[in-house]
Amino acid sequence: MTRSIAEPAAQDTAAQDTAARPVLRRLAEVLAAQAERTTTPADSGTTAAGPEPASLRRIDPAAPAMADRVLRAATEIMCGRRAAEQLAAVLRPDQLSYLIGLRGAARQLRPHIQSVHSQQPAPGVLEATGIVVLRTGVRALSARFEVHIMTGGARWQCTALHLPLTRGDVVAAQRLR
Fold first, then answer.
1. I need a labelling partner for 135 at 20 to 30 A (CA). Which of 4, 128, 147, 174 fits?
2. Which of 3.40.630.30, 3.10.450.50, 3.40.50.720, 3.90.1640.10 would CATH assign to domain 54-175?
C-alpha cells in the first residue's frame, strides 16, 4: 500500500494520536523554533557596552569585495611588489609580521592569486580563501575578518591569515635565490 509520509495511517494508534500535528514541517518553522530556544541574552543584540551597532547584526554586502582586495594585496606583498605597511590598517600586528615573514619565504616562488571565495557565517564575521598559484603548486591563502568597533566606527579587521607552505616550497625558494 502506498501512502504519503505526511498523512498518518488510519490503522496506527500512534499515528491517530499525532494526527492533529503534521509529520512534516517547513524548515523555516523548525529553524525559527530552534533559534528561539537557543537565544541567550548575549545574542539579543546587546553587549556589556550597550546595544550592538546595526553593522554587527546584518550581513555586509561589500565585505566580499573588501576581502578580495585584501587577499590580492597580501599576495602582492608576498611578491615584493607592495609595501607591507599598506595593509597595516586592516591586519592585526601579529598577522602583519606573519605576512612579512611569508614575503621572505614565498618571494622566489612568484605567488599570484587566481581567485577569491568568501562567505559570512555570521554577522560581523567573514571568512575568505584565495587560490594562490606558486611555482611549486597551488595553495590556499585563508583569512578571517571580524568587525571591530573603533572610535571612528565599526571596521573590518583581519584576525587570521594563513598560507601553508610545504618543505618543498621552502627548498625550492632557497634554490631559486
1. 128
2. 3.10.450.50
